[in-house]
Structure formats: C-alpha cells, structure tokens
Amino acid sequence: MSAYRRLFIDHVAQTSETPMIIEVDRASGMYIYDMDGKAYLDFDSGIAVSSLGHCHPDVMSAVQNQVASYMHTMVYGEHVQVPQVAYATLLSQTLGNGLNSIYFVNSGAEAVEGAIKLARKATGRIEIISCAGAYHGSTIGAESLRSDYEFTRNFFPTLPGVGHIRFNNEEDLEKITERTACVILEPIQAEGGIIVPQNDYLKKVRQRCDETGTLLILDEIQTGFGRTGQLFAHQKYGIAPDILLIAKGMGGGMPIGAFVANRDLMSHFTKNPSLGHITTFGGHPVCVAAALATLKVLISTDLIAKIYEKEAQLKNLLVHPLIKEVRSSGLMMAVELHQAALLPQVIDTCRERGLLTDYFLFNSASFRIAPPLIISHEEIILGTGIILKVLDDLQSQMQ
Ligand SMILES: Cc1ncc(COP(=O)(O)O)c(C=O)c1O
C-alpha cells in the first residue's frame, strides 16, 4: 500500500469501509489521472459537480485572477464585491420569475438550512413537507427531511414537524395544508435513482402550495446548471419556485451554493431580527468568480443545447440483457440492472478498466451516469463500450 493511501486511511476521516481510493494526481476535461498515470474517464463528475469538465480554462483563469486581486475581506453581506454583484445580477436576469435576491453559502446543505429558516420566519409556520426517497444534505436540518427512519433514527432528535409525501403521488398533496411552511422537493429525484415527474406533478404541487400559502422550495442542487437539458430543471416543467436551491455544478469545481428568492421574501433575514442568517465564507470571491465563469460558459455556448442529443446517444447504446431499464433527464441517468447483486461488481470493474460511475444513495439496483456536459460522442462510445464489455464478461461468467 502506498504511503499516501495508508495516511489517507489513518488520518482523513472515513465515511465508509470501502472508499474508492483513487490517488489523484491531476484532472483535465473528461479525465482524472492517478499517480501511476492511469486515466479514468469520468462518467460521474464527482457526483454532478464538474459540469464543464475538470479544470475548465475559463474557470481556472477566473480563479487565478481573483486570487491575485483579493480573497476574503469581510463576512458575507458587508462589502461590495464585484464577483458577487455580477453573479447575482446575471443569475437574477437569467432566472426571471421574481427570483432576484441571492444568498450565497458554501454548500448544498447550507442552502437547504437557509431556506428552511427563511420559510419558517416568513410564514410563521413550522410544518415542513418533503418527499420520500429524497436527499437534501447531511446537516441536521437537511437530514431531518430524509424519509428513511432506519438512517435518521441514529441521529435523533431531528427537526420536529417534518412530514413526507410520495413523489408523483397526487393524493398525498392533501397533506400540504395551511399549517405547512414549505414543501421542499427535487424536480427530478436524484438519489432515488432518477425519478422524473409525471402528469404535470410539479404544476400540481405548485398549485397546492398556492392554495395553502405554502412556500415551494425546489432543490436544484443536483439538477441545476444544465444537467437535465435546460439551465434549471423547473424550466422544463413550466413552474417556478418561491425559493430555489443551487450548489454542486454552480462553482465549476469550487465549493459554493446559494438560495434564491424574491427580495421581499429574503428581507425576512434583514430585520426583526437583523442578521437573521449569517456566514463567514458564504459567497467567497474566488468561488463566486469561478461560478460566474461557469454560468457565462453555460449561457453563451451550445453545451446545453446539445444535451438531449447526448442523452439519446447514451440511451441508444446502453442496451444489454443485464440492463433492465435506463432512466434519464438529460445527462443525469440511472442504469438499472435486473440483478441488484451485480451492482458492486459492475461499478468496481468499470473503475478498474478506467471508467468512473457511482452508486445512488436510495436505489440499490442502479448505477449513476452523470458525465461532464462537455462529453463528446467519441467519449460516449468509449465509456458505454467499457460498461457493455463489463456486462458481457459478467454474463459469460454466469453461464
Ligand atoms: C439534491 C441534493 N440536495 C442537497 C445536497 C447536499 O449538497 P452538499 O453535499 O453540497 O451539502 C445534495 C448532495 O448530493 C443533493 O444531491
């Protein structure tokens, strides 16, 4: 075992007993390279983060220029920093629908926490509805939204007043009442294994929220920034949230998140009490500079316009007797196997052969494909070729 590997296990806190342990040397475009020079084709984007690929030149130069000008100067919300102002203005214009005030934070879970506080303060209500099978982050508030009791009971007590509805189940919408502060859901359920909304489900959720004075929070932390074929997934379904949550792909590989709302709604953090939500590093100028470069690339190129074509190519190629179904929304994809027991072998063997895919948190029969949006047709052929060969080899071992 290499010295770094040993030190990683001994001193970097571990989240599982079976970490992937790729010793990263560098990353560029569609590839991550280990210290032995082995190249891994990235079909995962570090879980839907590196949408422009690794070390995109525009992101790199934005980071370098910002580092050379200034880094941290003051806690969030006190100094006028040009990257924040430019980003907030551009994103507001791009989003429309009154989503014109952006609260910058450092991660997805923090965006969830901020949105929950804002919804409670603005409505004076404490009940929260989230969806079964959703993941919103690992802080205690975000974890409270999770539906699997076997997991959450290890961390009790979680937030009071959280109820769950089933995604795509219209009857459950009756659980949203005048007592509900907010409904929080992903427009496409990611960790559940890519579950897309059916029968105008999101419009019906929006309508029920309007009827009951409940705030609709859409978690676009995984679906945002082009991943599903539109800049944001809610734009595919003709609705807008009261509060939008973003992170992951936002920073082009740098850590940043935000919650976005109308200025009037956001003003609940400004007075009675003032400093209603504060953060030291949220909206760090270097991270926002990276996010601004990322957003500019996404809205000024044809990357997003080409996603449906790439989705179709992937789906056409991923046909095999061991594959039961491929579910997708743009370049967010779940490949479900007939036999869940084969999943670890498929993921591990793909990795050994130089292709990175990943598990979902709540779907034990499917693996994740979420490549950088820059993936080429040749790289799609290469990556799916590795998957199909792994499946062929498994099939022949089984005979
Ligand atoms: C839909 C969704 N929401 C929230 C989060 C939490 O984001 P973070 O890990 O940045 O806290 C994630 C992370 O996987 C996510 O997929």
Can you characterise this structure?
This protein is of the alpha/beta class and 399 residues long. The protein folds into 2 domains: 3-55 and 303-398, Aspartate Aminotransferase, domain 1, CATH 3.90.1150.10; 57-300, 3-Layer(aba) Sandwich (Aspartate Aminotransferase, domain 2). The chain has helices at 3-11, 45-48, 57-69, 82-95, 108-123, 140-144, 149-152, 201-212, 263-266, 285-300, 307-317, 343-352, 377-398; strands at 24-28, 31-34, 39-42, 101-105, 127-131, 162-165, 180-185, 215-219, 243-246, 257-261, 323-329, 332-337, 355-356, 358-359, 366-369. The strands form 3 sheets. A 7-stranded mixed β-sheet has the order 4-10-9-8-7-5-6, with helices on both faces. A 4-stranded mixed β-sheet has the order 1-2-3-13. It has a 4-stranded antiparallel β-sheet with strand order 11-12-15-14, with helices on one face. Helix 3 runs antiparallel to helix 10 and helix 4 (82-95) runs parallel beside helix 10 (285-300). The model has no long low-confidence stretch (mean pLDDT 97). Pyridoxal-5'-phosphate (PLP) binds next to helix 5.
